[in-house]
Design brief:
Largest sheet: 2 strands, antiparallel
Distance between the termini: 26 Å
Low-confidence stretches: 1-6, 413-421, 453-458
Structural class: mainly alpha
Helix content: over 70%
């Protein structure tokens, strides 16, 4: 039984002591705790909670200690929450919600005060934009409101925070018009599909039917002030305000009777005003443009009322004006042998307006004759109008009626189907087939390079990028081959060729040859660029390895290994791949990877290979038992000697000094570990003095170099090993630095295991 101040410890204090011990074990495991460690700390917290509830008068010191331990537990949230097994445990044990330690999330959710502050800051940015906020600002304020709702659903707000939220929500609603501008909110709703209770994603303007009525009354007042010649902007504003009123009315299930009565009265006033302003000469033209741009619904009678009021006055003038504009557009086309897309589009839209002006009415003979003459001139320009197959694309967007025949012009690049090809076309086509054959060879070579390879190191097939490259090349070659070899294929190529503006009708065969030559160039370029692609895979793998995404990095290195041909680059890639395997704990594959890079006599490869061979044998004895088999020690020793020898040769050829010193430091550390691997830690230091002294000398040499080098991701390991080697000889010395870096966490698991085993021996 435990005692505190000569008194038996309470059950709560005993539970807290066990809880503290379990947390310490969890912290020592860094970000990779075992299943048992996680379960033990959570169960220990359960016991604390049970004893806390059972103790009617817990000591203040116990409560303070519990708060401190809970804070440490939350500091391990990432390690606990990232374990998918926690979900299964909760379902199996039926953990109550109040046992929050079983429901830890990472990152920890923000506090209500923080969420409110974020919401207010986002609102300030919206208000400062003065009605023109950016999409990023709008997204931030809506997402900030989302975060508050998540917190509020989990735990009710305090009264002061609830009041602050109500005030901020009112400020958000006041910015509704600016937020919904540009229809961006509708697109986000489609993507996110927020619930109806998340009202901030469903903002509208006007916010209410009554507010819309007020805007409608104000717009009508502006019309009355400027009658009979109101400006186009004033009329357009009234139409759009009436549109908004209708949208709000249809969205409300039960609009107020008073509001409906006011709307009907205002509609009556609008009909009167529409008749009063009908003689405005410019209004009818503006109205047509507005309808084309805003496309009002057929049920929006206020647009139709204004149009019908203007129509009788402008019917005759409109016909004459439409034909005049049509003739002017044709004259512009006539003066240009190669009209621009804008000129063609304007001509066809002008013809649309002519059709709209003359529909549903009897035309005078003079108008009929003029229209027929103008249409004849239009048909003469059909090839110029249909160049590049641009009309087909415009039809998809504008969707003109089928009766508008001027949108259906098509270029005729080929003659009839039974017409023989000319000799010049045959030569061009033969050249195209030759180019495609050569391109096919390059495509086959590329696809074979992308195929699955590897047995000992694992295998990897082509990834998405490589598949897309092969599919794109093969699909393009197949289409061009059919198009170049058959007349029906040439017909199929017509749509492609017409999309290129500068290709004339008699240039089809040369254009086919040109496309084939381009396909050959692309296939050759991709095939020749495979080493560069391999280098990209290598660089990407290095980045992923630094981020700790080891399996993704492994895949990138294996992909690059298929493509890189240079021996030096292959050695660098093998070294990086072996390092990834080693960090995964897969020493066998690491050794295989290192061995593939030996051909270049790279000292880093020899050093890494010797280290992996040594670690593979040493870990069998749990890092404490010596390696008894001298044959197992011989090969790592040879590799370390070869690495040292190659380092001397490299210094003669002028290798990078920092890189050389870094590599030499690692070689010294590995040689020191080689000496340690022969030491029996169960025996007194005097019996192992020779090996311990040699190891100490190597670690000291490494430490001297480390002092001159910048700190790397692996930290100051040489300093730790040097201090630890001294402590193994003189047990009075305490390796405090090793304990510090071990508590903080060492990047390499093998180094951590070796250091921990020797610290346990000293202590």
């Amino acid at each position: 039984m435990s005692y505190t101040d000569a008194q038996p410890a309470s059950p709560l204090d005993q539970a807290l002591a066990l809880y503290a011990a379990r947390i310490s074990q969890l912290e020592s495991a860094a970000l990779e705790p075992s299943c048992e460690q996680i379960v033990e700390v959570l169960v220990a917290r359960d016991a604390v909670e049970q004893n806390r509830v059972a103790d009617p008068n817990p000591a203040v010191t116990s409560i303070v200690r519990l708060i401190q331990l809970d804070s440490r537990l939350k500091g391990q949230a990432q390690a606990i929450a990232n374990d998918d097994r926690l979900v299964e445990w909760k379902e199996t044990l039926n953990i109550p919600e109040k046992y929050w330690w079983w429901h830890l999330e990472y990152p920890l959710p923000p506090l209500p005060k923080q969420a409110i502050a974020r919401y207010e800051q986002a609102l300030v940015a919206i208000e400062a934009a003065e009605g023109k906020p950016t999409s990023a600002q709008v997204q931030e304020v809506l997402l900030a409101r989302n975060a508050i709702e998540v917190i509020r659903n989990n735990k009710p707000f305090l009264e002061r925070m609830a009041k602050a939220l109500i005030e901020l929500d009112e400020r958000l609603k006041a910015q509704a018009k600016a937020i919904i501008s540009g229809d961006r909110l509708e697109g986000w709703r489609t993507s996110l599909n927020p619930p109806a209770t998340s009202w901030w994603w469903h903002l509208t303007y006007p916010l209410s039917f009554n507010q819309g009525i007020q805007d409608y009354r104000r717009a009508l007042g502006e019309i009355e002030k400027s009658t009979p010649s109101p400006s186009a902007n004033v009329v357009l504003e009234l139409l759009l305000v009436r549109d908004a009123v209708e949208r709000v009315r249809t969205a409300q299930k039960y609009p107020s009777p008073e509001g409906i009565s006011q709307m009907l009265e205002l509609d009556k006033c609008w009909r009167t005003q529409a008749s009063a302003i009908a003689n405005n000469d410019n209004l009818h033209e503006s109205l047509q443009e507005w309808k084309d741009n805003f496309n009002p619904l057929p049920t929006y009678w206020w647009w139709r009322t204004l149009e019908e009021s203007c129509y009788p006055t402008h019917k005759i003038k409109r016909n004459e004006q439409a034909l005049k504009q049509y003739e002017q557009a044709l004259d512009k086309i006539k003066s240009h042998s190669d009209p621009s897309s804008e000129q063609v589009r304007e001509l066809l839209r002008t013809r649309d307006r002519v059709e709209k002006a003359i529909s549903n009415q009897a035309l005078p003979e003079s108008v009929c004759k003029q229209l027929i003459d103008l249409d004849s001139r239009l048909k003469e320009k059909r090839l110029a109008l249909a160049k590049g197959n641009q009309l087909a694309d415009w039809k998809k967007s504008l969707n003109p009626p089928e009766t508008h025949w001027w949108w259906n012009f098509k270029p005729t690049f080929l003659g009839a189907e039974d017409e023989f090809m000319s000799w010049s076309d045959r030569l061009w086509t033969g050249g195209a087939v030759l180019c495609l054959g050569l391109a096919a060879g390059f495509v086959v070579s590329t696809s074979q390079t992308f195929q699955t390879f590897g047995t000992k190191e694992g295998s990897t097939g082509s990834d998405t990028l490589q598949n897309l490259l092969v599919i794109a090349q093969a699909g393009g070659l197949l289409s061009l081959t059919v198009g170049a070899a058959t007349q029906k294929g040439q017909k199929a190529l017509e749509d492609i060729l017409t999309s290129i503006p500068f290709i004339r009708p008699n240039w089809q065969a040369p254009a086919t040859f040109g496309l084939s030559a381009i396909a050959l160039g692309v296939a050759w370029t991709i095939n020749e660029s495979l080493p560069q692609l391999g280098t990209w895979y290598y660089d990407r793998g290095q980045q992923l390895a630094q981020e700790g995404q080891l399996f993704q990095a492994q895949d990138k290195f294996l992909q690059g290994k298929k493509l890189i041909q240079d021996a030096e680059q292959q050695a660098k890639l093998s070294l990086s791949l072996g390092d990834v395997y080693e960090r995964q704990g897969n020493l066998e594959d690491a050794i295989t990877a290192y061995q593939t890079g030996l051909a270049t006599d790279n000292p880093a490869v020899f050093s890494a290979l010797g280290r992996a061979q040594l670690l593979q044998e040493w870990q069998k004895g749990g890092w404490t038992k010596p390696i008894a088999d001298q044959e197992k020690l011989q090969q790592p020793e040879i590799n370390f000697q070869l690495a040292t020898s190659q380092m001397k040769d490299g210094q003669k050829t002028g290798q990078n000094q920092i890189h050389s010193q870094q590599l030499l430091k690692n070689i010294y550390i590995n040689q020191g570990l080689w000496n340690w691997s022969q030491v029996d830690l169960m025996k007194p230091p005097d019996e192992n003095k020779g090996l311990l002294t040699e190891a100490k000398e190597k670690f000291n040499d490494a430490y001297k170099l480390e002092e001159k080098l910048p700190t790397t991701l692996r930290g100051r390991l040489a300093r730790c090993y040097s201090q630890l080697a001294e402590a193994l000889i003189n047990r009075q010395i305490k390796p405090t630095y090793c304990e510090q870096i071990l508590n903080k966490g060492i990047d390499d698991n093998y180094d951590a295991a070796i250091i921990r085993a020797r610290l346990d021996t000293i202590q």
